[in-house]
Amino acid sequence: MKQKGHLLIVDDDADVLHTARLVLKGHYEQVTTESSPLRLESLLRRESVDIILLDMNFKTGATTGNEGLFWLRKIKEINPYVYVIMNTAYGDIQLAVESMKLGAVDFLVKPWEKEKLLSTVNTVYQLALSNRNVEKLKGRESALTQDIDAGYGQLVSESEPMRAVLAQIDKVAATDASVLILGENGTGKELIAREIHRRSLRCDEGLIKVDLGALPESLFEAEMFGHVKGAYTDAKEDRPGRFEIADGGSLFLDEIGNLSISMQSKMLSVLQNRSVTRVGSSKAVPFDVRVISATNQPLYTLVEEGHFRQDLLYRINTVEIELPPLRERKPDIRLLCLYFLKEYGEKYQKSGLKIDERTQRQLANYPWPGNIRELQHAIERAVIMSEGAVIGAEDILPQGKGKVKEAQSLRVEDVEKSTVIRAIEKHGGNLSKAADELGMGRTTLYRKMKKYGI
């Protein structure tokens, strides 16, 4: 199959043009020849060219190579990314050095053999292709990082509990210490993980997130450690796992409390050895990552109950950051309301919306069992549905007073969800008391909250 590249050969020797075209046209989709460099500028401005094979002398009897150097400079001014191979009948090493300094990638001496021409052009084309793919990947990574980070906004806080969290971030961010982030659903654990990475010495590399709670056990090794071609039926090519992909950067292991004992053992082994072995391979691949983990599960309770390995816990919790629920950071509720009001006002073209003082007091007294995520969604809904300039409590809180309406449906799931929410509200967001009221353990309550998005 022909390569998709466009080659341009510029030489005043018709025999050279004819021979080069014959040799290369069977290997590349487009081969263009020019006998004069005077048409180079217009051609480069209207067409995309990958490689130029450029003669160094165009005047009869000229041997200095100055013309070639002049046109090399011109080409690089027009398109600094095009790859240029210099072509001369005089093997002058000084010319080769000068050409390389000006941006040429290789140097051919005429008369060249066909095999030498094809080999040189192929090598340069593969270099061009490789660099283009690297550029594309870097651009894609940069765009994805910007998009992802944009979706998580800023840390908005002035409360005392969050000051302690921010102080911890200041101390730990620049280190390579493993960090475990604990907190209820919706408290902003991923935002904290991203903030730690942004302030770290690895900030120029990627932050790779893995939602362990959504990763089936059957896919765990392939996703985390990678696989080689043929390792199993669908393994049609070699593929790196998340640890290899995150090499040099940070790996965010979200919902680590959901790992089964079997998965925990494999994770511990990899973290201890700092290397992975792809599925179907026997070769250990070392990695260098900073591990940040998060969970809403009570890990210490799970350790006591035998559901979480103590040695894995000690491996991931060099530094622990516990995020307070929103009900314990009441001064932040006003700030967050204003932040989300501005964000969604701009998004839905409803700028200028306000929340009055009476409503702010009601919002501060609501327990927010879903934490920041619940507040964010409530503000977004209120902005979308707003008809006036002022948003009231009835637009944000359930039933306007933080009371949850009885489930209209008799479906078991709807009734259970309503009961769980009422129990949490009854005890002001105290999950231990809510769990006792419901006759279940905290771990079971966490699972119910996750199931129903509470």
What does this structure look like?
This protein has 454 residues and is α/β, with parallel strands linked by helices. The chain is built from 19 helices and 16 strands. Strands 2-1-3-4-5 form a five-stranded parallel beta sheet, sandwiched between helices. The chain has a five-stranded parallel beta sheet with strand order 7-10-13-6-14. Strand 3, helix 3 and strand 4 form a beta-alpha-beta unit. The longest helix has 37 residues. The two termini are 56 Å apart.
What brief labels describe this structure?
19 helices, five-stranded parallel sheet, 454 residues, 48% helix
Q: Number of DSSP helices?
A: 19
Which spans of ≥5 residues are poorly predicted at pLDDT below 50?
400-407
Number of strands: 16
Q: Terminal Cα separation, in Å? A: 56 Å
Helix content: 40-55%
How does the major sheet shape up? 5 strands, parallel
- Going by helix content, strand content and strand pairing, the class is alpha/beta
Any idea what the radius of gyration is?
32 Å
Lateral arrangement of strands in the main beta sheet? 2-1-3-4-5
Report the principal-axis shape.
elongated
Mean pLDDT: 85
Strand content: 5-15%
